């Protein structure tokens, strides 16, 4: 696996269902190396700390391989053109990773980067802000159906990370699969 993009954002107000809400879901790629501490990336914010951020959700990673799916469903929903690509960070992820696959990740797996270590802690659950950024009301439902949720990561060893960093996966206890956990919680 490899980091294709490191992304962050500051919280900003957006209109959602006729009211102003704060969000930092629209992450933007960052050049150079970024410091990562136990609470997340330097310069990144989360607008709703009840569901994002904190030690177990310090960093959010998403697989770029899933972007083609989102490009297609957005075009089908007529909120974008067929050839309109989504930029890295569009799904709110801090790390856009080339080959991240939820079905092969387990809670406790460690991602060893050149200067830091992250651990898979839990799946991401979409909210209304995800629907808003995708541009159609059923985006959250489609994430649940696809199982392409991405992974929240805890910071085991702080350091820096950057575009192009190679990731070595060290298997954890192999007790709870990320996709299985996501689907079980989505049914509850």
Number of domains: 1
Query: Rg to the nearest angstrom?
Result: 16 Å
Strand content: 25-35%
Strand order of the largest sheet: 4-1-8-7-11-10-9-13
Question: Could you explain how this protein is built, in words?
Answer:
There is one protein chain. By secondary structure, this protein is an alpha+beta fold. The protein has a single domain (3-187), classed as Beta Barrel (M1 Pyruvate Kinase, Domain 3), CATH 2.40.33. The chain is built from four helices and 13 strands. The strands form three sheets. The chain has an eight-stranded mixed beta sheet. Strands 6-5-12 form a three-stranded antiparallel beta sheet, with no helix packed on it. Strands 2-3 form a two-stranded antiparallel sheet. Strand 2 (12-16) and strand 3 (19-23) form a beta hairpin. The longest helix is centred in the middle third of the chain and has 10 residues, at 67-76.
